[in-house]
Design a protein that fits this description.
Layout: H1 6-27, H2 33-57, H3 64-93
Helix pairs in contact: 1-2, 1-3, 2-3
Length: 95
């Protein structure tokens, strides 16, 4: 383990991303704001844990920017994956 407090750094980066996304959802006047908050909080909790575990077992020291890029990367990977799976499901359901 080379990263200094990897879980703390990953949770800080995930919290900042979570707050930014919540502000975006709140400003966009979402109807199901509480449902979105619950879903997003769980998602960013898992993302923070994955990033912290990766940094913990890494042999290199991680900077704050690497934590931020990893958190955002995991989030984008999830979003793109879910949209792809949803598109495949729609395509298979309506040939």
């Amino acid at each position: 383990m080379r990263a200094d407090k990897p879980f703390r750094k990953s949770f800080v980066c995930a919290s900042v991303a979570f707050v930014a996304l919540v502000l975006f959802v709140a400003v966009s006047d979402a109807k199901n704001l509480t449902t979105a908050l619950i879903f997003l909080s769980g998602l960013f909790l898992v993302i923070a844990l994955l990033t912290g575990i990766w940094a913990f077992f890494s042999k290199r020291t991680w900077s704050w920017s690497r934590f931020a890029v990893t958190v955002i990367g995991f989030f984008l990977f999830y979003v793109i994956g879910m949209h792809t799976m949803r598109a495949i499901k729609v395509t298979l359901a309506n040939p």
